[in-house]
């Protein structure tokens, strides 16, 4: 896989997960990515150019808000591109998050389980199912 010319935002309050995300995104040669441990800072960044961000990866459980609140907040920024929810959460929570995202006008929301694998991230960024 060559360079990936997409702007990616990754949100997770867990330092280890962010470090793994950084390593994977660097290994995948993602040309531009921004890591946030605070969802409110990430939303402020996205709001500046919602159409310029191609993919948002976010943990489902964050201290400032959960996935449902994040989806609502993202919809207010104008972001409607690919949303990937990262979680070790149960299937019920994943289903609720996906239904909410669709209700707010997002396309199919992708899910990425923890622990995540390099190949899964690559497939999501390439537009394939993980």
The CATH architecture can be given as 3-Layer(aba) Sandwich
> Shape, please?
globular
Percent of residues in helices: 40-55%
Given as residue ranges, the uncertain stretches (5+ residues, pLDDT < 50) are none
Main sheet characteristics: 5 strands, parallel
Percent strand equals 15-25%
Radius of gyration (Å): 13 Å
* CATH topology group: Rossmann fold
Read across the widest sheet, the strand sequence of neighbours is 2-1-3-4-5
Q: Give the end-to-end Cα distance, rounded to a whole number of Å.
A: 16 Å
Mean pLDDT: 89
Q: What is the number of E strands? A: 5
Spell out the CATH superfamily. Response regulator
Domain count, please report it.
Answer: 1
CATH class: Alpha Beta
Task: Describe the protein in words.
By secondary structure, this protein is α/β, with parallel strands linked by helices. It has a single domain, classed as Rossmann fold, CATH 3.40.50. Helices cover 43% and strands 23% of the residues. Strands 2-1-3-4-5 form a five-stranded parallel beta sheet, with helices on both faces. It is globular. It starts with a strand and ends with a helix.
């Amino acid at each position: 896989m060559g360079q990936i010319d997409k702007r990616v935002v990754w949100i997770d309050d867990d330092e280890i997960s962010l470090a793994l995300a950084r390593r994977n995104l660097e290994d995948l040669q993602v040309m531009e990515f921004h890591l946030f441990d605070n969802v409110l800072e990430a939303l402020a960044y996205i709001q500046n150019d919602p159409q310029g961000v191609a993919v948002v990866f976010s943990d489902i459980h964050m201290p400032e808000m959960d996935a449902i609140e994040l989806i609502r907040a993202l919809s207010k920024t104008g972001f409607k591109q690919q949303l990937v929810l990262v979680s070790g959460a149960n299937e019920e929570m994943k289903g609720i998050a996906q239904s909410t995202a669709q209700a707010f006008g997002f396309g199919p929301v992708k899910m990425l389980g923890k622990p995540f694998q390099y190949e899964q991230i690559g497939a999501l960024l390439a537009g394939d199912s993980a």
